[in-house]
Amino acid sequence: MSRYSAIQPLNAAALLKRYSLRADKRLGQNFLQDSFALEKIALAAEIHADDSVLEIGPGLGSLTRYLAASAQKVIAVELDPDLLGPLKTVIAAHQNVRVVQGDILELNISELIDQPDYLAVANIPYNITSAIIRHLLESQPKPRRLVLTVQKEVAERICAKAGDLSLLALSVQVYGKPQIIARIAAEAFFPTPKVDSAVLRIDIYPDPLIPQQLLQTFFKFIKAGFGQKRKTLRNSLSAGLHIPSAQTESLLMNAGIDPKRRAETLSIQEWRTLCERGESK
């Protein structure tokens, strides 16, 4: 019997109605209430009994209960103050959960959690996926694993291979290895979104694939490279970095990269070489 089998299903619609609330589309609120999907997320996190879990966007607490059943402690950060009432009601039986109201992007991670190698779990709008990952991994302490519920297409983009990489994929893969653990149908949420979702697990590398001293240059370069995606690297980097085309071409040639290639074709190692050549100029 699963450790989660005693957890009762949550009726998000009824709970919202009881508190005279509605899901806020502006905040991308779609509450996952399917027990099978919730268990998949908890299992994907591989929670140990002595683990601390940072949950971003607990919403109504449906997943929080699963995390609390396995972890030593859960710190649940919720942006919407209106949800604190139902959230605290749902998790009342779990004494190892601390609820914090605030924007995770504006909070100091070290003040929320002091255990290194913690786990981070989040059900987040796709447009802040990259920002949340960077915030977590550029703060201390650093998590050892992220488990994110995101739009299926976004998860697939993040897991893309060299030759079809995007700005988002590079922003994630420089820090850790992503893999799609499960797909979640739109009907598992309330309200029902227009797209399916996926459970994305990212196992964090001990150190980024780009050296720490080059990370700022790396993000500057990839942002420029993808700023005008249909253009060659010579033109997109020249426009994005505000340097002459001839200088960009020389930089690319010195890095062993054909200036006519496009940004999505470069591997992380090639971006690293390009950053190293750019820093040496």
Question: How would you characterize this protein structure?
Answer:
This protein is an alpha/beta fold. Helices cover 36% and strands 17% of the residues. The protein is built from 12 helices and 9 strands. The strands form 2 sheets. The protein has a 7-stranded mixed sheet. A two-stranded antiparallel sheet has the order 1-8. It is elongated, with a radius of gyration of 21 Å.
Secondary structure topology:
Blueprint: H1 12-18, E1 31-32, H2 35-45, E2 52-56, H3 62-68, E3 73-78, H4 84-90, E4 97-101, H5 109-112, E5 119-123, H6 129-137, E6 145-151, H7 152-158, H8 167-173, E7 176-184, E8 189-190, E9 197-204, H9 215-225, H10 233-241, H11 245-254, H12 268-280
Parallel strand pairs: 2-3, 2-5, 3-4, 5-6
Antiparallel strand pairs: 1-8, 6-9, 7-9
Helix pairs in contact: 2-3, 9-10, 9-12, 10-11
How many beta-strand runs? 9
Mean pLDDT: 93
CATH superfamily of the largest domain, called what?
Vaccinia Virus protein VP39
- Order of strands in the sheet with most strands: 4-3-2-5-6-9-7
Shape: elongated
Radius of gyration: 21 Å
What is the level-2 CATH architecture name of the largest domain?
3-Layer(aba) Sandwich
CATH class descriptor name of the largest domain:
Alpha Beta
Distance between the termini: 62 Å
SSE series: HEHEHEHEHEHEHHEEEHHHH
CATH topology of the largest domain: Rossmann fold
| Distinct helical segment count | 12
Bin the strand percentage: 15-25%
